[in-house]
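To close the section, here is one more complete example, presented without commentary so you can practise reading it yourself. The ligand is adenosine-5'-triphosphate.
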Amino acid sequence: MATVSIQKLAKYYKDIQAIENISLDIQDKEFLTILGPSGCGKTTLLRLIAGLEVPSNGDILIDGNSVLEVPIRERDIAMVFQRYSLYNHMTVYDNLAFPLKMRKVSEQDTKRRVKNAAELLGLDKLLDRKPGKLSGGEQQRVALGRAIVREPKVFLMDEPLTFLDPKLRTQMRVEIKTLQRRLGVTTIYVTHDQSEAMIMSDRIALLKNGVLQQVGTPDEIYEKPSNTFVAGFLGSPAINLLDCSYVEKGGKTFLDLEFFKLDITDQKDIMNKKRNGSELILGIRPEDISLAHEKSADTIESEVYVIEPLGSESNIIVKLPTYKAFKFGMHDVVNVKVNAGMNVKIGDKVRLKFNKHNIHIFKKSGEIIL
Ligand SMILES: Nc1ncnc2c1ncn2[C@@H]1O[C@H](COP(=O)(O)OP(=O)(O)OP(=O)(O)O)[C@@H](O)[C@H]1O
Ligand SMILES: [Mg+2]
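Output:
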């Protein structure tokens, strides 16, 4: 049993603020992923928890007790790094046994633990080999095995799949997740890959510039992003973020997108309470725009610009009529997700329909309104 509680944690390197006032509670047996772009502070946060860095402020509690004064070795935490740093001159068995030797675990106990880990990870037939004669995936399993034999309270993993090829990566994601479930060890996993985070995590904590943006289940974060950064980070192809103005006219309320006015009269009360100013950002995911068959007042005339096949679906990049002022990404286009096999070609005139029930509306500053 292990809970990890991060309380008002901060880390500065001279004038660089790597981690800024982060509070986060990780539950027993939970798989929590720290997600964010390069340089946002993910590794720093893990190193602070492991005891490899000293915080500038704040506290870290494991099972309710502060560990700041506890030396690294006694924190009962095992870390798996991006580079597995296996000992190349030692066999797989010795690599697995090494952390136990360092902790003066008896030989009998070591044998038992190594055997268990090797069985769990399918390494039992490779115990006499040296790392140089293993595939990337096997080496990664040895690195995981070294963490497992310690039977720690908490696993910390820093982008452990980065150097694997895409196919192996997909396979190892499932293996790590399954293993974590079976062992029931509280795990904090770092990645900058949003799809990896979505697939593996019980909850995701999204960081930007050392600041925690949002914590929640993958579904919560995807469906209710707290700001435009979060909305843009999760989902592929990315959400469409369109500049717009709030307009009230003839008893109705609209988001004016220059080329189209989206009727949001039924959401008027919330908008009046929460927005400040009339300049807003409309967020709509590619799967919430569809191609309409017939011309009607609530569809937008546009043209197919690029088609990106994604397997069972395709992303169509569609050029909008007269729109220039995009806040993010490319100009005057939107991503639309359609089923593969839909008969469209580059240059086709199409009509877009926005699913009004699944839109997100943000303040100009990026903060969510609705
Ligand atoms: N020892 C250090 N001295 C000075 N600055 C550091 C040190 N370690 C990290 N930083 C800075 O702190 C910030 C966060 O770095 P960190 O390595 O935690 O990012 P990250 O999210 O793990 O990035 P990546 O995805 O590239 O691994 C960066 O601006 C980095 O340059
Ligand atoms: Mg890192």
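Once you have examined the tokens, check your reading against these statements. The longest strand covers residues 16-26. Residues 238-287+300-363 form one domain.
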